[in-house]
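Hey, resending since the last one bounced:
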Amino acid sequence: MYVNRQLTAKLFLAGLMTTGLVLAGCAHDQYKAHKISSNLKYAEPITGNEELGVKNGDLVVQKKVLMSEQLRDLQNKVYALQDRVYGDEDYHSEGIYGALVKCRAALVSPAYGGNGHLMWTEPMDRVVHSSKDFIVGLDNRNQIIGIKTEYLKNRIARFRQDYAILKHREHELTTQLDVCDTALNAAKWKMKHKSETAQN
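The structure tokens again:
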């Protein structure tokens, strides 16, 4: 009875280890560069990179893209959105965040009836950060170099997540800026109206 329990426990542990190894192998396998057949029979172009044709006996619409172009477009889109939201110091653009800070500073100004105390604005938090972790070593010409490697799928997933976060922040900050602009315009109108009434 005791021997059977020991044997069952060992078999269970062996099964768990095998499953773990298979899953680990599958997880690593997703990053491998697999050969893909992109040939279609009776192919007819639809748009620039889409074709209609037959593959394995099925009628399919196939779109073929260069992943280097896809990744570059995605990264450019994310960097452009981040500059729109938070500005770009190199080009002295303030972005939506900077415009909101300026608007809130103007809104509390005594010139427009404010108390002069700055309104709180959440700290700037840029989403896209470049990793500075390099593997440092010698190349084949004995030059000291640093190399940073990232799986393509992980990089695409990271930039898609960054884009989603930035779109959410863009919406939030734009709404806050609209509210502030409306309040500031109302304060300006009141001060102008007050001044005109005092003159009359």
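The first helix runs from residue 2 to 29.

Sorry for the duplicate.
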